[in-house]
Specification:
By secondary structure, the protein is an alpha+beta fold. It is built from 17 helices and twelve strands. It has helices at residues 16-24, 49-52, 62-68, 79-93, 116-119, 123-138, 150-159, 173-177, 190-198, 204-208, 212-219, 221-231, 261-281, 314-326, 357-377, 383-387, 389-394; strands at residues 8-13, 33-36, 44-47, 73-75, 100-104, 107-111, 142-147, 165-167, 247-258, 285-295, 300-311, 336-347. Helix 4 packs antiparallel against helix 6, helix 11 crosses helix 12 (221-231) and helix 13 packs antiparallel against helix 14 (314-326). The model is unreliable at 349-355 and 383-395 (pLDDT under 50). The structure holds thymidine-5'-triphosphate and magnesium ion. Magnesium ion is lined by residues 12-13, 16, 106-107. Thymidine-5'-triphosphate is lined by residues 12-17, 45-46, 58-59, 105-107, 161-162.
């Protein structure tokens, strides 16, 4: 295997929401199960294969689905449960590659490049093992595609759904790819498909065999280049792990609207402490502090301040949050329904500057002690300390 050769695996669960329902409710197995919004304007999230036979599919209005499949079992779905199963699946995937890009709740790319020690060059066995592990640990069926790039891997996982396993090797690209309709090219939607059909392009091979100059004249340079690359099975997009979080925040909706500023400040302090803890745990310093206020009438406001010096300690975040809050006029008679604090504009761990080195060092050692306790006993335990002793000791 050449050094530069890439291998990407795409995994996608079969009928994900419906499969979870059938797993958790044995009486639903073998039946047409349709998960989605059940209200008047609801749409189908997904349907079991039994329901798909009736022509029910994702994004179809629920009313149409009911007409097509009158004997279907219609369910609202249990989204927290799907999220939990998704997390379990990604945990399993993390054992199969160190480089994973989640695409949605039930699918992702794994980069297998350079993993010959683990795959032993037997890509089919590796894909099978991944499918078997998911099935054994979650009771759910996945489809897998393995290919030299993302486009072909995703295409592959779809080719033999359900329970598919397709390996697309470079020497088979033309045989597999060219007979497929152009709508299978990534980025070709209904409109582009029609436009291409007007020039006589129906299958991917029609494009691949055309000369690029003609194609460029017909559909424009950018689209032509994109289509030609993919029609030849070329795609060099990297597998990118989840992008870093852009902001860290916490908000609280109160059971009863807050009626006084001191009450609100107490909550701001607690929110600031939770955000600070998350920042420090993530090794982050933030240049922007934002507060969010929702009043009794649901009107919602945000106020933010960008600081020259980045913050990560509870009292610094609280100070900024409180200043923003003080400057916000609450209409007479209105209560506060929700408060939130968030931080963004991250840079790496701060350096100790010459001027406030001593104070910073003091904070650092104090917070490292607090954070150790939080890490050991959980956040709740230290909440009170955060409100009284910590702040006193820093004065
Ligand atoms: P998909 O992987 O697109 O669909 P699927 O897993 O249900 O079926 P397939 O076997 O064809 O992969 O989406 C994953 C889940 O995301 C799906 O179970 C429900 C949800 N979803 C929606 O809520 N709305 C949608 O329009 C789509 C496409 C999916
Ligand atoms: Mg799926």
């Amino acid at each position: 295997m050449a050094q530069h050769e890439r291998w990407i695996l795409h995994v996608d669960m079969d009928c994900f929401f419906a499969a979870v329902e059938q797993r958790d409710n044995p009486e639903l197995r073998g039946k047409p199960v349709i998960v989605g919004g059940l209200s008047g304007r609801g749409v189908v999230s997904t349907a079991s294969y039994e329901a798909r036979k009736y022509g029910v599919h994702s994004a179809m209005p629920m009313a149409v689905a009911r007409r097509k499949c009158p004997d279907g079992i219609f369910m609202q779905g249990n989204y927290p449960q799907y999220g939990a199963v998704s997390a379990q699946i990604f945990e399993i995937l993390s054992h199969f590659s160190p480089l994973i890009e989640p695409l949605s709740i039930d699918e992702g790319f794994l980069d297998l490049t350079g993993m010959e020690r683990f795959t032993k060059g037997r890509l089919r066995d590796y894909g099978l093992k991944l499918k078997q592990t998911i099935l054994a640990e979650t009771g759910l069926v996945a489809s897998v595609g393995i290919a030299p790039n993302k486009f072909l891997a995703k295409l592959g996982s779809d080719l033999e759904k359900p329970d598919g396993l397709v390996i697309i090797r470079p020497e088979n690209i033309e045989r597999i790819l060219w007979p497929l309709p152009i709508s299978r090219i990534w980025g070709v939607g209904r409109k582009t498909e029609e436009r291409l059909a007007a020039f006589g392009y129906r299958h991917i091979g029609d494009i691949a065999k055309k000369d690029i100059d003609t194609l460029q004249k017909q559909v424009g340079g950018r689209l032509a280049n994109h289509l030609m690359e993919l029609a030849h099975g070329r795609d060099d997009r990297p597998v990118e792990p989840l992008r870093e979080v852009q902001s860290i925040g916490k908000e609280n909706t109160f059971e009863e609207d807050l009626k006084s500023r001191p009450e609100a400040e107490k909550h701001l302090l607690s929110l600031a402490a939770q955000v600070g803890w998350r920042l420090r745990r993530g090794g982050k310093n933030a240049h922007t502090v934002q507060i969010k206020i929702r009043l009794s009438d649901f009107s919602t406001y945000t106020r933010q301040k960008t600081l020259t010096e980045a913050v990560c300690y509870d009292e610094d975040i609280y100070r900024e949050a409180k200043n923003l809050f003080d400057a916000f006029a609450i209409p007479a008679g209105s209560g506060i329904r929700l408060l939130g604090v968030s931080c963004s504009g991250f840079d790496g761990p701060s350096e100790i500057s010459l001027f406030n080195g001593e104070e910073k060092r003091k904070k650092e050692s104090l917070y490292s002690a607090i954070d150790k306790i939080k890490a050991k006993f959980g956040e709740g335990k230290i909440g009170h300390l955060g409100e009284s002793r910590v702040f006193d000791s820093l004065k």
